[in-house]
Design goal:
single chain, 314 residues, six-stranded mixed β-sheet, Caspase_cys_AS, thiol protease, cysteine-type endopeptidase activity, Pept_C14A
Length: 314
C-alpha cells in the first residue's frame, strides 16, 4: 500500500483561474449583494453559550468527491473516503448528498441551490470536499478555484435559515508543497479523567442580535497551510478516515443520542489521531516517513453539541 499526496504539480490555466477569481458572489435573488446603508443595527451581548441542537433534524451534509481532475493524477482511494464519510454522516442522521467529479460551474450551482433551501428545522450544515489542492485553492474536475467559494454561499446574507447555526467544512486536499517531518518527545504516563458535557441552558426569550456575516463557520483542513496532505491508495486519506473513526466511536455511546458531543472536542481528537498514529510509507523517498497535521479555523461563537438523530422521512 502506498501513500500519495493531493497536491497539484502540473498545468494551470490562467484564464480559468481568472474566471473563478472574478466571478461575482451573488445573493439568493441572483443579484449582487450589497450591505444596507440606511439600516440601523444595535449590537448587544448574549449569555447563550450553546448553539441550539433541539431542532427536528441534524441537517444537510454535502460531499464533493473528485477522483478525476483535468491535468492531474487520478486520486486513487478516494472512493473509500467518499463511502466511509457518507456512512458516518448518515449514522448521525444527516441528509447526505454525494456529488462526484463536478465541474466548478456545477459545484457553484449546487452550493447556491442548497443555500436557497429552508434549513430552519436543522441544527447545522456540513460540507466535505476531497480533491487536489494548492495554496488557497481547491480543484473541481475542470479547474481550481479559491477555497472560500465553498462557504460564501452560506454566509448569513445568502442563507438566512442557517444564521446562528454552525456551518462546518471539511477539506481533504493539499495546501502547498512543504512536508511535515516527525519530531520526537518523551513523557511520563499520567492519570486522566473524562469531562462530561455541560447541561444545556434553556433558550431565552427572543431578542434581536447583530452578528458578523461570516459568523458561525468552522473550516477544518486535512493539513497545515502550505503543506502536503496524504491519501492511501487503498485505505483512503488519513484525515477523512480518522474523522470517520472518531465520529463513529462517539456515536456508539448513549450520550450521543441524548445530549451530544462537543464538536471541538471531537475535532481535537481527530487532530490527535492523525498527528500520533500516521506516518507516510511512499515509493518516492522524499515523501517517505512524513507526518500530517490537520487544523481548523473557527468563527463559531458558541459551543455546539452534535447529536445523533433520525434522518428526514425515517
Amino acid at each position: 500500500m502506498s501513500d500519495e499526496t493531493d497536491f497539484d504539480l502540473f498545468k494551470k490555466s490562467k484564464s480559468k483561474h481568472d474566471k473563478a477569481d472574478a466571478a461575482q458572489v451573488v445573493g439568493q435573488s441572483g443579484r449582487a449583494v450589497t450591505a444596507p446603508t440606511n439600516q440601523i443595527v444595535q449590537s448587544r451581548s448574549t449569555h447563550e453559550e450553546f448553539y441550539q441542537n433541539n431542532h427536528p433534524y441534524v441537517g444537510v451534509a454535502v460531499i464533493l468527491n473528485h477522483k478525476y481532475v483535468k491535468g492531474q493524477k487520478d486520486r486513487m482511494g478516494t472512493e473509500k473516503d467518499r463511502d466511509t464519510i457518507a456512512e458516518t454522516l448518515s449514522l448521525y442522521g444527516f441528509d447526505v448528498r454525494v456529488f462526484n467529479d463536478l465541474t466548478f460551474e456545477k459545484v457553484d450551482a449546487q452550493l447556491k441551490a442548497i443555500a436557497k433551501e429552508d434549513h430552519t428545522s436543522h441544527d447545522c450544515f456540513v460540507l466535505v470536499i476531497m480533491s487536489h489542492g494548492a495554496e488557497g485553492r481547491v480543484f473541481a474536475s475542470d479547474m481550481s478555484y479559491p477555497v472560500e467559494r465553498l462557504w460564501q454561499p452560506f454566509f448569513g446574507e445568502n442563507c438566512a435559515s442557517l444564521i446562528n447555526k454552525p456551518k462546518i467544512f471539511f477539506i481533504q486536499a493539499c495546501r502547498g508543497e512543504r512536508l511535515d517531518k516527525p519530531v520526537v518527545f518523551n513523557e511520563f504516563s499520567v492519570m486522566t479523567r473524562q469531562i462530561g458535557p455541560t447541561e444545556l441552558d434553556e433558550k431565552p426569550a427572543t431578542i434581536t442580535y447583530a452578528i458578523p456575516n461570516t459568523a458561525d463557520l468552522l473550516v477544518m483542513y486535512s493539513t497545515f497551510e502550505k503543506y502536503y496532505s496524504f491519501r492511501n491508495v487503498e485505505n483512503g486519506s488519513w484525515f477523512i478516515q480518522s474523522l470517520c473513526d472518531v465520529f463513529i466511536e462517539a456515536a456508539k455511546k448513549p450520550i450521543a443520542y441524548s445530549e451530544g458531543y462537543d464538536l471541538l472536542r471531537l475535532l481535537t481528537a481527530v487532530n490527535r489521531k492523525v498527528a500520533y498514529e500516521y506516518q507516510s510509507s511512499a515509493k518516492v523517498e522524499v515523501l517517505n516517513q512524513m507526518k500530517e497535521m490537520p487544523n481548523f479555523l473557527s468563527t463559531l461563537t458558541k459551543v455546539f453539541y452534535l447529536k445523533v438523530k433520525s434522518r428526514p422521512g425515517k
